[in-house]
Sequence to fold (273 residues):
Amino acid sequence: MLEEALEHLVRGIVDHPDEVSVTDRNGRRGRTLEVRVHPEDLGKVIGRAGRTAKALRTVIGALGPGRGVRVDFLDVDER
Amino acid sequence: MTESPEDQPTTENAAGTEHIVEPVEPVESTESAAPGRSRSPGSVPDLEKESEIAADYLEDLLDIADLDGDIDMDVERDRALVSVVGGDLDDLVGRDGVVLEALQELVRLAVLTQTGQRSRLMLDIGGYRAGRRAVLSELGRTTAETVRATGERVRLEPMSPFERKIVHDAVAAAGLTSESEGEEPQRRVVVLPA
Fold:
């Protein structure tokens, strides 16, 4: 659900919604949702002074389980 | 004194008025159904369209998160007001409304993305803003009384621009003036003696 919610929230605020993908990773540092967007949209999802990224993390944090879920933002070309 | 537009006192009656949600009159039934990016800079914002974009964005989120809630649309002081009502929406409001503020930010960005115009749309969830409005109006009114009685300025706790505006309005309605000081997020209202 969190993955889908995050994908929806990001798709609504970018110029290339079809290039948004979210991967759910469970690693040593807990759960991470990795958001990939078109390179031109990376600035949009991060926002001025990280404001948009913070807003996305806040909403996902509220929908998610008690423990924090990390949200990372990358462009589609990053590995 | 540099205030953001939404932080300005207005002469409007700021008593803790009950907010009544009414459906928005359909203005341009065919036009507004067309996809956005059609607005020229400086044109009057299409508040109905803003509300529709916001409602779609929020409805899909509620569906995905399996949350119950209905969406009401209204226009208040030349800005679109979209309210999510019903159900258990506390999680979407968050402590001190932080989740609500975050969602409002995202909703405004969704409108900007589709219309190419910045939006001043106001989001409410579970009546949170309406409730805060009543509490803050009362705070503004009682603080004005205290300041009038003592002749001493009073600095209130830090508040968001939305909250400060309500206090400014209530102080103005009580016949005193107020200003804001400090930097966000520590910016606070100061009520001044006459």
